[in-house]
Design brief:
This is NAD(P)-binding domain-containing protein. This protein has 355 residues and is an alpha/beta fold. Helices cover 23% and strands 25% of the residues. The chain has helices at 14-25, 76-89, 174-183, 209-216, 222-229, 240-245, 330-354; strands at 4-10, 30-33, 94-95, 100-106, 109-114, 119-127, 134-135, 149-152, 166-170, 188-193, 199-201, 203-204, 207-208, 234-236, 250-253, 257-259, 262-264, 270-272, 275-278, 282-283, 303-304, 307-308, 314-316. The chain binds flavin-adenine dinucleotide (FAD).
């Protein structure tokens, strides 16, 4: 019989790494199965100009700061470098190029089948494959008639291909606003929104807003931070307020339909556009646990605080809003991983006492 691990972690991005850190600290036996070739998670796929919305002091995984310059706002490539370094620094047992395809349960352990043909067995599973792997695009009336280009922000990389175009960015979250701001330098840009963009200042009384989030405990209280987590409040980076006030980018109530050359706004006027970018969020992708059950009608996990409500031994780390509004961020994923790993350890200890 193959080894039965205490835990198998599925996904070796920041959520998998933070889980690995806490599992190692508590001396549990585990492996991290990662589909890709490194520990950078989805960060290499995010747009080039991405700058973290929190400064370095509030952007680290447990045990190793991203940089000693706490006030610096790291960019995408610094995060990629950091995550790879983190995996090596803590000697985390990552198995790369191992996509988990199916999980099933056999008596009191999980059977985990991977793309390499190898099968693993574990008493507990942590699913850490990210909240942002299934781009979500709403269906708008007559979308199929539009002859221009429609993309999701997941495939947006730089403003260069959109020079001198007329572009609409749909959404009012951090990605929508950040993309619209940089596009507005090179293209005629409009943000299409259901409600006006709500900005919160990056700095308050001389401190970054994350200092106040931490001090007031908002970081840990889901209900207070909900509007930030669900993207209805956006950090005012680089003078966004002034730019919106000056009408570059423009902000308009969401259009109601497409026509062949553009969109039809809610007042009935038509506008010609070349590209529409949907920055309308993501869903998680945990289809590999379909066979276990434990997912709701939308394919999202039925869980509370990262613990499956349906399947004993099944856990999640890195889900958006899992325990607090910071759950799916670099600074928030560590405490969630610790919570889940503690729960696993307690259960393992109880089981050992029973045997
Ligand atoms: P991911 O990074 O998606 O990693 C999941 C890993 O699982 C991947 O490596 C993938 O290859 C692997 N995987 C997937 N399926 C399988 C499988 N079946 N088997 C094995 N492996 C699998 N957070 C911040 O803290 N600050 C920010 O400024 C910030 N900006 C963001 C901007 C954008 C555009 C987005 C989308 C998110 C941003 N986030 C930010 C949120 C969050 O920190 C990132 O999304 C981060 O990548 C989430 O890490 P993760 O490990 O949960 O998931």
């Amino acid at each position: 019989m193959e080894q039965i691990w205490n835990v198998i972690v599925i996904g070796g991005g920041q959520a998998g790494l933070a889980s690995g850190y806490h599992l190692k600290k508590r001396g549990l036996s585990f492996l991290i199965l990662e589909a890709g070739e490194d520990a950078a998670g989805a960060w290499p796929q995010y747009y080039e100009s991405l700058k973290l919305f929190s400064p370095a002091a509030y952007s680290s995984l447990p045990g190793l700061p991203i940089t000693s310059q706490g006030k610096h706002y790291p960019n995408r490539d610094e995060v990629i470098h950091y995550l790879k370094k983190y995996a090596v620094h803590f000697e985390l047992p990552l198995v790369y190029r191992s996509r988990v395809e199916k999980v099933s349960k056999e008596s009191d352990y999980f059977r985990v089948e991977t793309s390499t043909g190898k099968t693993y067995f574990a008493r507990n599973l942590i699913s850490a494959t990210g909240s942002y792997s299934r781009p979500f695009t709403p269906l708008i009336d007559k979308q199929d008639e539009f002859k221009g280009s429609i993309i999701h922000s997941a495939t947006y990389s730089t403003p260069t291909p959109f020079h001198n175009q007329s572009v609409i960015v749909v959404g009012r979250g951090n990605s929508a606003v950040q993309i619209a701001m940089e596009l507005s330098e090179v293209a005629e840009t409009t943000l299409a929104v259901r409600e006006p963009v709500a900005l919160i200042p990056q700095r308050l009384l001389g401190q970054d807003i994350h200092f106040w989030f931490k001090l007031t405990g908002i970081d840990s209280f889901w209900k207070f931070g909900k509007s930030f987590a669900n993207g209805s409040s956006v950090l005012d980076l680089d003078g966004y307020k002034q730019k919106l006030k000056a009408g570059n980018p423009k902000q308009k109530k969401m259009f109601t339909a497409f026509y062949d050359r553009g969109v039809i706004w809610s007042d009935g006027t038509q506008e010609e556009v070349q590209t529409v970018i949907f920055a309308t969020g993501y869903r998680s992708n945990v289809s590999y646990i379909d066979a276990l059950g434990g997912l709701d009608g939308q394919g999202e996990p039925e869980q509370k605080n990262g613990i499956s409500k349906i399947i004993p031994g099944l856990y999640f780390v890195g889900l958006s809003g899992q325990r607090s509004f910071a759950s799916a961020t670099l600074r928030g994923v560590g405490p969630d991983a610790e919570y889940v790993v503690k729960h696993i350890q307690n259960n393992l200890e109880k089981q050992n006492n029973l045997h």
